[in-house]
Write a structure and sequence with these properties.
Largest sheet of chain A: 8 strands, mixed
Distance between the termini of chain A: 67 Å
Helix content of chain A: 25-40%
Strand order of the largest sheet of chain A: 1-4-6-5-9-10-11-12
Oligomer: heterodimer
Strand content of chain B: 25-35%
Radius of gyration of chain A: 21 Å
Number of strands of chain A: 12
Distance between the termini of chain B: 34 Å
Strand content of chain A: 5-15%
């Protein structure tokens, strides 16, 4: 018989994950019925909550606040041990003592996006109207909705202008949406490996992922919570497909080549003979430990709908007319999910608006994921951009 | 320009803010403080840094990725781009000055680039190596070789400079496209201005490079 092995079941129980949904190991901002979140789809979401982490202290002028926007499968645990996985924060390369975003100098905020599953209201949360999990009854959200919710959090924290809004990928989309929606509240913007709209190819990959989730019989039309299960096989396949798009041919070849996993010869089966297969299966199974399947559907949808130009009469430059924000746009040569051409289109629009913009393309073979990895040139550029903006803003420069 | 400067010796002027190229100092002197400037082909950002110390809001475009990344790492507002293809993205009157320093000869369409400079900027500052310089003429006349100098060391087959001109050629181009010359300077081999008011043919012979402050609507 031919050996068949699919993705292993998660080692961490669904209880750990679902506990974080409603009772996160984070600070919580609760917004009652008097403060609904007005969504693009026309629904007023109310009540709702936002889970967030902060690092460092807000200065007396309230001028040193930095908002970090997380990517599709990220969360608010930027620079602390993750409460579910026990792994380090996802951006400890950029955020921490002596790093470009040093809590000693900045008050750093990161909130879980609306629609997420780490404590901000999303499809895995309890719908107060029914006392049951929202599931597919949760309204469809957009990137502008996420940013609107973040702005309400920033208001709640008593911050008028953010010194910087920083993010990569879906986080970069939020950065751009911040500058388009609240230009006067963003002093500087660091937009990494992103675009002003989601491309047809990227929508196609997201649809593939969603179909994988929906094809899992455990999905139950989104009602899996009622059945006490989670469609982890479908979600793992979605993650595996997506993960390939975050890497590059060169990086996969360098990392794995055609090397075999713990064996010398092929087994003539569908077991994970190749290291690259084993790696992908691991990526899939570790992802489902910490992520909700419906949340994945909603957040990928939000990215698909993103198109700043469409919200401004089809002319991208109009989104940034007269903007005073200082921009730094960064792309990576081997990123084929958000290629440099997308960043260049953004830069051209910013130039047409006479915005102050720096744009650097960084050479690396590590693909889209490069923004999360140890890429010294990227850190050097981020540090210099923030330092120069800090100087212009009159922030004291503690390390000269 | 002030007393803190020592005499230029090799084209480098020492000031309180460090060693600065003489032609950069001349360009910086032409820019009014507080204005908004685009430096096209800004290299590693030396001129932009000099301008920023004088309270000028400077932006840059640079072709080479290494150059751009070094500029951005210095905190400068520089983007990767090509003078031939990317200037069209800038709106009219976006800058007070657009600077093209030692880059004109490397563009594919110098005339179009020059027109774009004066569309984007109310004024343009253009500098370029003068192929009418006596040493250049001598190399071709006596040596029979395409000229090479300390500032232009590349051989004909690997140079990025594809559209060389003389000061006289450039003056004629400005006339042809109705560009007004507000100020013209020729620099000697060390980047020092030939301060004397001399006829064009002398500048064309003894100027190693020309620096021009241009505005719209001149010519014949």
């Amino acid at each position: 018989m031919v050996g068949v092995k699919t993705v292993p079941s998660p080692a961490i129980s669904a209880d750990d994950r679902s506990h974080e949904v409603d009772h996160p190991s984070s600070q919580l901002a609760l917004f009652g019925t008097e403060q609904p979140l007005r969504l693009d789809c026309g629904v007023d979401l109310s009540p709702f909550q936002i889970a967030y982490q902060t690092y460092g202290e807000l200065n007396a002028d309230r001028s040193n606040a930095v908002l970090i926007c997380h990517a599709l499968t990220g969360d608010q645990h930027v620079a602390n041990v993750h409460p579910v996985t026990g792994k380090p924060g996802w951006w400890e390369t950029l955020v921490g003592p002596g790093r470009p975003l040093d809590p000693d100098r900045y008050f750093i905020i990161c909130s879980n996006v609306i629609g997420g599953c780490m404590g901000s209201t999303g499809p895995a949360s309890i719908n107060p109207a029914t006392g049951k999990v929202w599931g597919l009854d949760f309204p469809v959200i957009t990137i502008p909705d996420m940013v609107r919710a973040q702005a309400m959090l920033i208001d709640r924290l008593g911050i008028d202008t953010l010194f910087a809004v920083v993010g990569g990928s879906m986080g970069g989309m939020q950065v751009l949406q911040w500058t388009a929606a609240y230009p006067a509240r963003v002093y500087s913007a660091l937009a990494i490996a992103c675009a002003t709209r989601h491309s047809a190819q990227n929508i196609a990959f997201h649809e593939l992922g969603r179909q994988a989730v929906m094809a899992d019989p455990d999905w139950h039309n989104g009602g899996y919570a009622d059945h006490g299960i989670h469609p982890h096989r479908g979600l793992a396949v979605a993650r595996m497909a997506a993960h390939i798009t975050y890497l590059s041919d060169a990086a996969l070849h360098r990392k794995f080549g055609r090397r075999m996993q713990d064996r010398e010869l092929p087994t003539f089966s569908f077991d994970a003979d190749f290291q690259v297969e084993s790696y992908l299966r691991y990526q899939g199974s570790s992802f489902v430990e910490r992520f909700d399947a419906n949340s994945y559907l909603y957040l990928t949808r939000a990215m698909d709908y993103f198109d700043i130009a469409a919200d401004h009469g089809g002319v991208l430059a109009k989104a940034f007319t007269g903007i005073q924000t200082r921009f730094c746009v960064v792309s990576f040569t081997s990123d084929w999910l958000f290629p440099t051409s997308e960043s260049r289109a953004l830069v051209h629009a910013l130039n047409a608006s006479s915005a102050r913009v720096s744009f650097a393309e960084i050479e690396t073979d590590r693909g889209h994921d490069a923004f999360l990895l140890d890429v010294p040139e990227f850190f050097e550029i981020s540090r210099a951009f923030l330092q120069s903006a800090g100087k212009a803003r009159g922030l004291t420069d503690k390390d000269g | 320009m002030s007393a803190q400067e020592v005499l230029p010796f090799n084209g480098i002027v020492t000031t309180q803010s460090g060693n600065i190229r003489a032609d950069h100092l001349l360009v910086a002197e032409m820019v009014k403080p507080g204005s908004k400037v685009l430096d096209v082909g800004c290299g590693e950002g030396d001129l932009l840094q000099l301008l920023e110390t004088r309270g000028i809001d400077g932006r840059g475009i640079e072709l080479s990725r290494e150059g751009v990344n070094r500029c951005v790492a210095k905190g400068l507002a520089v983007v990767q781009g090509d003078a031939d293809t990317d200037l069209v993205n800038y709106p009219d009157d976006a800058f007070d000055y657009v600077i093209l320093s030692q880059t004109l000869q490397a563009t594919r369409q110098p005339k179009v680039v020059l027109e774009n400079l004066l569309r984007i900027g109310r004024r343009a500052i253009v500098s370029f190596p003068n192929f009418g310089f006596w040493r250049m003429r001598l190399q071709l006349l006596i040596g029979g070789h395409m000229p090479r100098t300390e500032n232009l060391p590349a051989s004909w087959y690997d140079t990025a400079n594809i559209h060389f001109c003389t000061i006289k050629d450039f003056v004629e181009l400005c006339d042809e496209i109705h560009v007004k010359m507000e100020r013209a300077e020729a620099l000697d081999l060390y980047g020092r201005p030939l301060r004397l008011r001399l006829p064009w043919w002398v500048w064309n012979l003894f100027g190693e490079q020309g620096v021009f402050l241009l505005s719209r609507g001149g010519g014949k």
